[in-house]
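Researcher: Quick test of sequence recovery. Tokens follow.
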């Protein structure tokens, strides 16, 4: 450290478990991330539980992650992550940088970015992707917004994270909407369900399962899950098709359960062909029993126009409400240009909670 630099950047080594002295640094980093999420959002909905975080950060055949942290006066002041896909998108690295507000303007973000970029460069990654988070409320205030090329949405230029991204050569490529649903006040589902089923019930049936896909459908689920990388809007982000097979589906399921998650899955099956046409997943973390996390939802292109998105979402939300009475709200994310899926969510009762800016930078 120099006289001007009152912090130290260190690599975080993942412990074997959350217990014992070897997990002290991980628990400190985890607590710091939780505190930063609470300060920004007023709750810990978007923060992973320590168990989920530790499992998610462990290497798999498909991803690996490097983590760094900054200390100031013995306290965790910032965290940097570099996540790398190992099977596809091999030119890309996803990075995350978080600096606690009391420690900003000290060069910590720049130092963490330098570490993350070095980690990406060591694996010959030339595309860096990241995100910034923005609670709702800035809309309509006449703020100068940075807008993506899609023209859908924007984030405030004055936000510290946005200013940092622009200063370091990142471009805003997409805006995602962060929405939440208050289950207690949700209404109108019967009418929505009747309308959706009137259009498609003769041709499609809804199937559901928990945690593990039945063996008879796993190959088809691999196809659908792979389509999330090609059929979902990605704005200007460089996203290649992901290769999915039964093994990757099982790996995803096993990892979710190891994180303490229960996965509720609903799919639409075409009666005539037996083909799975749509799916949706909601996760409930045992460490956050008040929350449902609406994850992937996809309708295959060949089956769009039959209200399948509404059908599978309603089926899964009903399961959630019946099987997990402690869940108070559901959160989800959608590309701001994904007007169709956003319209479904609005009809279901979701409200805007904030926005994420999706950023990209190409390096030599």
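Model:
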């Amino acid at each position: 450290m120099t006289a001007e630099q009152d912090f130290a950047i260190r690599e975080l080594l993942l412990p074997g478990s959350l217990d014992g002295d070897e997990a002290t640094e991980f628990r400190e980093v985890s607590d710091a991330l939780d505190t930063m999420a609470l300060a920004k959002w007023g709750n810990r909905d978007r923060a992973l539980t320590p168990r989920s975080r530790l499992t998610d950060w462990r290497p798999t055949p498909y991803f690996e992650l490097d983590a760094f942290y900054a200390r100031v006066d013995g306290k965790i002041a910032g965290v940097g992550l570099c996540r790398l896909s190992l099977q596809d998108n091999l030119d890309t690295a996803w990075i995350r940088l978080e600096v606690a507000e009391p420690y900003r303007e000290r060069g910590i973000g720049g130092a963490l970015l330098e570490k993350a970029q070095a980690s990406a460069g060591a694996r010959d990654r030339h595309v860096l992707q990241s995100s910034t988070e923005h609670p709702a409320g800035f809309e309509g205030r006449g703020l100068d917004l940075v807008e993506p090329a899609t023209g859908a949405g924007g984030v405030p230029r004055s936000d510290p994270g946005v200013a940092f991204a622009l200063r370091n050569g990142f471009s805003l490529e997409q805006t995602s909407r962060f929405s939440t649903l208050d289950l207690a006040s949700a209404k109108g589902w019967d009418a929505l369900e009747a309308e959706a089923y009137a259009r498609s019930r003769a041709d499609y049936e809804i199937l559901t399962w928990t945690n593990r896909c039945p063996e008879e459908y796993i190959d088809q689920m691999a196809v659908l899950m792979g389509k999330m990388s090609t059929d979902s809007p990605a704005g200007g982000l460089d996203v290649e098709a992901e290769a999915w097979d039964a093994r990757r589906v099982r790996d995803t399921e096993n990892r979710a359960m190891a994180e303490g998650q229960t996965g509720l899955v609903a799919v639409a099956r075409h009666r005539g062909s037996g083909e799975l046409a749509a799916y949706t997943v909601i996760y409930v973390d045992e460490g956050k029993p008040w929350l449902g996390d609406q994850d992937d939802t996809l309708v295959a292109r060949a089956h769009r126009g039959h209200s399948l998105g509404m059908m599978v979402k309603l089926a899964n939300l009903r399961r959630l409400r019946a099987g997990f009475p402690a869940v108070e709200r559901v959160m989800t994310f959608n590309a701001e240009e994904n007007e169709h899926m956003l319209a479904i969510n609005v009809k279901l009762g979701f409200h805007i909670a904030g926005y994420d800016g999706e950023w990209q930078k190409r390096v030599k």
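The first helix runs from residue 24 to 41.
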